[in-house]
Amino acid sequence: MKNIVLIGFMGTGKTEVGRILSQRLGYDLLDADSIIEQEQGISITEIFQRHGEPYFRDVEADVIRRLSEKDRVIISTGGGVVLRQENMENLRKKGILVCLTASPETILKRTGNDSSRPLLQVEDPLKKIKELLEFRRPYYERADLMIDTDGKSPLEVAEEIIERIKDSI
Ligand code: S3P
Predict the structure, then answer these.
(1) Ligand 1 pocket, 117 CB below 6 A?
(2) Which of 36, 54, 129, 154 could make a disulfide contact with 16, Cβ separation 3.0–4.6 Å?
C-alpha cells in the first residue's frame, strides 16, 4: 500500500482534498504545515517573520523526511516542498506524488481573504502568484500525476484521484 502525497501551489486544495481522501480510503491524513506549526508552537507566518524562509525550509525538510517513513498515509504538503530535491526523493520512496493545479486567477480567489500565506502578502498578489507558478512549474511537473482543480469541488478532485490511482495503491 503506497502513501498518497499531495503537492501543488497554495490554494489548489491539498488540505481539503487530503481530508476527503483520508475519509474515503481510511488512511490517516498528515498535514506537513500543521505539524510544523505544532512542533514550532507558532504559525507559519510567525516562523517566516521571526526566522525567515530558509529556516522554514530546513524545518519543512526535516518534517517531510520523518513523514515519508510512514505507511498507508495521505501526506498533504506546503506549496514550496517541491523546491528541495531531497524532499521529492524522500516523499517518492513510499508515495505516489499527486500534484493539484489551478489557474492563477483561481488561486487568487481561493487565497485572497487569507492572510496565513506570507509569500502572498504583497501589493500585487496575482503578479506574485504568476511569477512563483512560472518558476515552480518544472518542479511540480515531476509529480506522478497532475490533476487540474479549476471549476471542481474538493470532493470531485478526490474522486478523480481515487479513480486514477486505484490500481497503483
Ligand atoms: C508555501 C506554501 C504554504 C506554506 C508556506 C510556504 C509556498 O503552504 O508552506 O506559506 O512556498 O508555496 P500551502 O501550500 O498549504 O498554502
Answers:
(1) yes
(2) 154
Residues 128-132 have a mean pLDDT of: 98
Answer yes or no: is the C-beta of 100 below 6 A from any ligand 1 atom. no
DSSP 122: S
The answer to whether the CB of 118 is under 6 A from ligand 1 is: yes
The protein residue with its alpha carbon nearest to ligand 1, atom 9, reads 78
* Residues 35, 3: Cα–Cα separation, whole Å: 17
Length of the chain: 169
The model's pLDDT over 34-91, given as tens digits with 9 standing for 90+, comes to 999 999 999 999 999 999 999 999 999 999 999 999 999 999 999 999 999 999 999 9
Instruction: Determine whether the shortest distance from the Cβ of 80 to ligand 1 is under 6 A.
Output: yes
Instruction: Tell me how far the alpha carbon of residue 24 lies from the centroid of ligand 1, in angstroms.
Output: 25
Q: Cα separation of 27 and 70, whole Å? A: 11
Contact 116, 49 (CB under 8 A): no
The full 3-state SS of 38-67, as one line of letters, equals: HHHCCCHHHHHHHHCHHHHHHHHHHHHHHH
